[in-house]
Amino acid sequence: MNNVIEQQRQAYEDIELLEQAIVDLMLQDLTKHRYKLIREQKISALLDQIQSRSKQLQEIEQDDLGLCQKESASIASNNPFDEFYSRLSGIREYHRRNPDTLVYPPEMEYIKYKNNPEESEKRERALLAKAEEDEGEAIPDIPDVQTFVCAEDEHQLDTRFSGEERLGR
């Protein structure tokens, strides 16, 4: 969908989701210095994304080419259902050409910011300790809980500081 109003709506939704992700990160009670540094890096990256989307939104709202006015005029024409059905046919045509396109809700991308990495480590240790107590049983499957910490973040953190700096302390 390439219309201007949809682009504005998407930009506002993205900004709102990014703000919620920052709030989720800030609400986590972290004790490890390493995780605190990674959280600060993530927050900085999310703020950069908000700035980028805001600039894009500002360009759309300036409407130098008059696209928003043209779109509003086409919607407010004598028969608004003509515009609706023409857009609906465009959407149907797109899905007819691309039947296997998977659609993920945008919230799924930011769900990892709600999970505390320290709590998931505690759960893993508890499951492993229980498996050691019950020596005869197999090690249970540890559920994969996505957190905001990934291997790439760990690597960036290791390369950002030298050994003498002790992670910026």
TrEMBL record:
Its EC number is 6.5.1.1. It is an enzyme of class 6 (ligase). It comes from the Eukaryota. Keywords: Ligase. This is Pre-mRNA-splicing factor sap61. It comes from Coemansia aciculifera.
